[in-house]
């Protein structure tokens, strides 16, 4: 947090809110080994687009949609074919800054990358 405050460091991020057909939100408990916010219950998943061609595409938010597919597979085992990129809906922009334990924290620019997805199951 000291470096975030001193240098106003910021990075790109996104959040996924995954709902089933009953509009129930899938929540996830963060790992105890996470540096920031260990064991906290949170939205379906959060991450950062990587610096790779498929995740840098700005048109129709395709890059972040690809990043969301990657992270849903990594964290929850949900294959891309179960959640096509056209099912993701960008919700808006958020500037997010939060201390975790005083030493660590987050400062993220969720640029048109807050994602919602409604599934049939």
Automatic annotation (TrEMBL):
InterPro entries: IsopentenylPP_isomerase_typ1 (IPR011876), NUDIX_hydrolase-like_dom_sf (IPR015797), NUDIX_hydrolase_dom (IPR000086). Coiled coil: none annotated. Residues 9-121 form the Nudix hydrolase domain. It is an enzyme of class 5 (isomerase). Gene3D superfamilies: Nucleoside Triphosphate Pyrophosphohydrolase. PROSITE patterns: NUDIX (PS51462). The keyword Plastid does not apply. The keyword Cell cycle does not apply. This is isopentenyl-diphosphate Delta-isomerase. It comes from Flemingia macrophylla.
